[in-house]
Design goal:
Length: 522
């Protein structure tokens, strides 16, 4: 009898779950008229990824017409890098994205490399009107024919404008607006309105340094200063600059922050983004910062820049969740790579040192449901606690941990494991993804441990937030003080998180929660 009841219950549960599955597939079919929509293996469920084919850097991040625009480096013919276009998507909440037609195509001046977009409110360019200001995209032209001929002047800067909120674009007939006098790597214009001089500023990278240019009308540009030949990391070419002012939290003080991506030369290998904190007088950026600082010590946050024109002045950052070391080899077939979650940047003074934090926008909380909570887990030295993960690779895990050395290991039944080790004594976090799932697509994906310094932890307590999507883990310490972003390709969803105390004394894990994150693509 009991057996019979148990069997009925199992049949009921199984049928029930099949029913659920069918329903969600139907939903995906109804809307998009496709059987498979964002359900392929490793497809991020709540991060932006292109519908298909290759994507790299975020471009033209600007808020206009009630929408956050996300343009991106895109090759629509293949899942590897090729002649670059600007793909386009929009969002009202920075969570749900709507795909738009390709915005910019290669033309006689070259491929369309990275750049930015502004709203020309004063109609300085004459492209729009006061009532309908133009959205102006500023980008690098990369002339591959010149490159192949062995010339050095193959990168120039061009502009294009849109009068219908980014749906269609007119390329400026006077392009290029900034020519090239023989600088091999001369690219990635970031343009913003300069309140100090009442004109436009353009940041450009020129191999090993930053150049600052200015203009009254977005068409005629003049160089005003340079920065960085002798500052920061120089293990690779400087790319994707950004510069903005931030208030130091809790103080009246304001500082300017310069972002510079470099490839290779990141501390954990390949591509990474460094930052400088200093002053900008309208013409020149200066800093007395001696040490090199990095926005994210994981291996997969590159070419990140921030939004122009955001209504509440928040500084919102999006990075490309990959690394040139293996970007073309990751095991996906329909599309390649995703963006980080949109993150808010803020400046904090800790132990006298300024640190740049990056942390998911509050809006993200709206798509996280609560599941279970464990108020307190106490672990003696070498004791382990294995927690069941209910939402596998679509979850947000949070907890507070006392200042102890500890390991956290994500694992599944296939034997995959991803290990994070916190070494409080040496003020370091180590991350090992060498057994995290598929790794053999590139030897560079898992060579060596990733290391992150955590010099300024407060109160000996660590607040942890880990956001796990199908092919990424974003790890935030103390609300974005220290961050590691990594791609992962587990052979099935992780089902366990094991926490081990490696120090003397009792380790207390407080307020452990796992929340299910909603899929954004239905
Ligand atoms: C950074 C970058 C940029 C360039 C673009 C080309 O990842 O190399 O410097 O404009 O990608 O796709």
């Amino acid at each position: 009898m009991l057996k019979h009841i148990v069997r009925s219950v199992i049949v009921f549960i199984v049928l029930g779950s099949i029913g659920c599955k069918e329903k969600s597939t139907e939903k995906a079919m109804d809307k998009k008229n496709e059987v498979v929509y964002y359900t392929e293996e490793y497809r991020p469920q709540f991060h932006f990824s292109p519908k298909e084919k290759w994507m790299n850097d975020p471009n033209g991040l600007v808020y206009h017409g009630g929408k956050y625009h996300l343009f991106y480096q895109h090759y629509p013919e293949d899942i590897v890098w090729g002649p670059m276009h600007w793909g386009h998507a929009v969002s009202e909440d920075m969570i749900h994205w709507q795909h738009k037609p390709i915005a910019l195509y290669p033309d006689r001046h070259g491929y369309i490399f990275s750049g930015s977009a502004v709203v020309d409110t004063e109609n300085t360019s004459g492209f729009g009107t006061a009532e309908n200001p133009a959205m102006v995209a500023v980008f690098t032209y990369h002339d591959d024919t010149l490159l192949k001929k062995g010339e050095n002047n193959f990168q120039t800067q061009g502009i294009a404008y849109s009068l219908d909120n980014g749906d269609s674009w007119t390329v400026y007939e006077g392009n290029p607006v900034v020519g090239n006098t023989g600088i091999k790597d001369f690219r990635d214009p970031k343009v913003f309105w300069n309140d100090i001089k009442n004109n436009w500023t353009m940041l450009l990278v020129a191999g090993d340094h930053l150049q600052i240019w200015e203009s009254d009308d977005l068409k005629k540009w003049e160089k005003v200063s340079e920065f960085g030949r002798d500052k920061g990391a120089h293990g690779g070419v400087w790319e994707c600059p950004d510069l903005f002012k931030l208030k130091v939290e809790g103080h009246d003080e304001e500082k300017w922050v310069l972002l510079i991506s470099i490839n290779p030369g990141a501390p954990n290998g390949g591509s990474g983004t460094q930052y400088f904190i200093g002053e900008f007088d309208g013409d020149t950026f200066t800093t007395d910062q001696e040490e090199t600082k990095w926005i994210d010590l994981g291996r997969d946050n590159y070419a990140g820049v921030t939004y122009n024109n955001v209504p509440n002045q928040d500084r919102i950052f999006i990075g490309w969740m990959s690394n040139w070391d293996y970007a073309a080899d990751t095991p996906t077939k329909v599309w390649r790579s995703a963006m980080t979650l949109p993150r808010k940047l803020s400046l904090h003074r800790n132990n006298g040192q300024l640190e740049l934090y990056n942390y998911p926008l509050e809006n993200f909380d709206k798509i996280v449901g609560k599941s279970y909570e464990q108020p307190l887990i106490s672990l003696k030295k070498n004791e382990l606690k294995q927690l069941d993960l209910q939402f596998g690779n679509r979850s947000e895990i949070k907890f507070n941990m006392g200042a102890h050395n500890a390991n956290w290991v994500f694992s599944n039944e296939q034997g995959d494991s991803l290990k994070v080790s916190v070494d409080i004594k040496n003020k370091k976090v180590l991350l090992d993804r060498s057994k995290s799932g598929l790794t053999d697509f590139s030897p560079k994906f898992s060579d060596g441990l990733q290391e992150m310094n955590i010099p300024n932890l407060k109160d000996g307590n660590i607040e942890v937030r880990m956001i796990l999507d199908h092919s990424s883990l974003e790890l935030f310490f103390n609300k974005g003080q220290y961050v590691m972003t990594n791609q992962i390709f587990p052979t099935s969803a992780y089902t366990k998180l094991t926490i081990e105390n490696l120090s003397d004394g009792v380790l207390e894990i407080k307020s452990f929660t796992e929340g299910e994150v909603e899929r954004i693509w239905d």
